[in-house]
Amino acid sequence: MNQFKGSIAILGSGNIGVSLAKGLVKASYAEPGQITLTRRNVSNLTAFSDQGFMVSGENAAVVAAADIVVLAVLPQQLNQLLEQIRPAVDPAKQVFISVASGVSCIDIRNKLGDAVQVVRAMPNTAIAIGQSMTCVATDNASKENVDEVVRMFETVGAVVKINEDLMTSATALCACGIAFFLRAIRAASQGGVEIGFHADEALKMAVQTAKGAADLLLQMQSHPEQEIDKVTSPKGCTIAGLNEMEHNGFSSSLIKGIKLSAIKAGALYTKE
Description:
Layout: E1 8-11, H1 15-26, E2 35-38, H2 46-50, E3 54-56, H3 59-64, E4 68-71, H4 75-85, E5 95-98, H5 105-112, E6 117-122, E7 132-138, H6 143-154, E8 157-161, H7 167-175, H8 177-194, H9 199-220, H10 224-231, H11 237-247, H12 250-265
Parallel strand pairs: 1-2, 1-4, 2-3, 4-5, 5-6, 7-8
Antiparallel strand pairs: 6-7
Function: Catalyzes the reduction of 1-pyrroline-5-carboxylate (PCA) to L-proline.
Protein name: Pyrroline-5-carboxylate reductase
Catalytic activity: L-proline + NAD(+) = (S)-1-pyrroline-5-carboxylate + NADH + 2 H(+); L-proline + NADP(+) = (S)-1-pyrroline-5-carboxylate + NADPH + 2 H(+)
């Protein structure tokens, strides 16, 4: 991978921001010294300054010196941050990446100026281990800048470019989705305890089985039903269990949950 030549500012260095910074360095996309991390309480970033990252509490000063600016605060904190950094914005040299859910590119440009190039990115918490599913969208950024953002997030997982009107849907399926799959694994492990395994054994078995199922689809590039057909023999135990779950609304409840999460994700940010 060609190393990025400029400087990167990550404003609001919580889990997502910090994980991205680590991923960029691990993949040799950037050196720690090219990345500045900010948050209100800078003392929480001491470990990162020890590793060579720049740290600061001065968002505007950091933006003034940056080529890529990652907006990684909560949607509720975003307007205040945009007010702070607006005087330091240089649309000719900067690209802004927003990971705030429910906030459109035009929302951000309304605060920072219409010429500002904004790319939205929606990673999930598996970014911490380089296994994020990140969706990327824009309404005005150049192809070069979008490609750069894709390259950045490919250091921490898989990336799909989508239309911006699908970003709240991506939040539900990929970001909230982590919790849905975790809950399914947890439920499977509880089932394991009920049929005789110790809790730690049951969890290990459920986790590895779930990982195997996901990897089957990724590596074989097959459809879930194809793989299900291989496990379900006539009058067998697998189809009996599957059908019992379906009678109790397994697929239906997952679908309804994802739909509700998408509605909620679109309402996290207020424009005022």
